[in-house]
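[Meeting: bench + compute handoff]

Bench side (C.D.) handed over the final construct sequence. Compute side (W.E.) agreed to return the predicted structure before the next meeting so the bench team could plan truncations. Sequence as handed over:
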Amino acid sequence: MANFNTHLNVAFMVSGTLSLTVYKAGLIDDSGFLMCVALGTIGGLLPDLDSDNSTPIKLGFNITSFIFAFGLVMHWRSELSLLALMALWLAGYGFMRYVVFSIFTTMTVHRGVIHSVPYMAILGLGLTCLSYYGLQLPLTASWFYGLFLFGGAMVHLALDELYSVNLSNMKMKRSSGTAMKFYQPRDKWWYLLLYTLLAMLIYLSPPFDLFWQQLSDPAAWAQLKVDLLPEVIKNLLRYN
């Protein structure tokens, strides 16, 4: 499988290129461009959440633990003494970082249901619904955020599948087929739950046809064609 740096760099390059494309086409604004790059990069790390020793899971639980502890302190800040708040901070952080993390790693298996296409589709659609219904973001931005998160995850899974090919003698490694998967018989009940959740999210998702109309608008891509080449190259081509 590809390592952390490979997943991070490739996801960043792919999401950056695609974000620039839709930005120059006028489909997202400045903040949307930055969010798409960030979400695509994050998506490129998400499938390794089921790896007990991976950098994303450790970093993610560290950040979550700090946020959880901070939230506890902010909630009780006016009711508890300084020493009590310090104890609450440490207890909250320790609970998330060690107890919850231990339970999570015990319940998950690397390249299990988390490391699959339907799971990542749920995260992508979930973000789209949260952005549109919860945060009241525009339809186009909401769909792009979910798609970039999902796309980054697909880059991760594709890289893992590519690394499962032994190029020296063109043989498939034992890990082949365990990355970009849609179903595994041993986890049939988990996959039944995943596809049930996915069907619900598809039903509840914002109107995709309106988003597709904006995405397929010829005016946007005409503008992209105009801005495709630098002025220097345009002038050279014009005079030649």
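W.E. noted at the follow-up: The radius of gyration is 22 Å. C.D. will use this when planning the next construct.
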